[in-house]
Amino acid sequence: MWRCAAGRTMEGVDPWLAWLLAALVLGVLELLTGGTLVLIMLAGGAVAGGLTAALTENPFLPWVVFSVVSVGLLVVVRPVAQKHSRQPLELRSGVDRLLGQEAEVVSSVNGHDGRVKLHGEIWSARAFDGTSTFVPGQTVQVLQIDGATALVG
Questions:
Q1: Which of 34, 41, 131, 136 is the residue whose CA sits 20 to 30 A from 48?
Q2: CATH number of the domain encompassing residue 134
Q3: What pLDDT does 106 receive?
Q4: pTM of the entire structure?
Q5: Residue 2 has pLDDT above 50, yes or no
Q6: How far apart are CA 27 and CA 21, in angstroms?
């Protein structure tokens, strides 16, 4: 017979299944709490504990594996994952890299249409606020990309 954290017995439930259920709950809680990457690392440890429980009859070994893997993930993997999730502008790719960049107005930009030169390429553009007008030769900043159109201000 196996006891859960609430003290209830869980007859007929395999320990490996309880570990995997714990991993699932931790994963969902990670999503709900804003992605601090702590609970997902514990979920990884719970998956390792579940695999260990499936392969052994020893009731303590899954806890040891859970602890070692969780600490390893928290100490080694979490800092790397956090670093990659907070990439500075210089390391962004695709259209995200264009946000905040300066562009030169090539043909008058207003709330409906216009053209700017951005990184050597001509882009369709329009005023971000929908009312401003920018004249050729003026420098503007890219505030948003909407499809193939730069919204500038």
A1: 34
A2: 2.40.50.140
A3: 94
A4: 0.51
A5: no
A6: 10
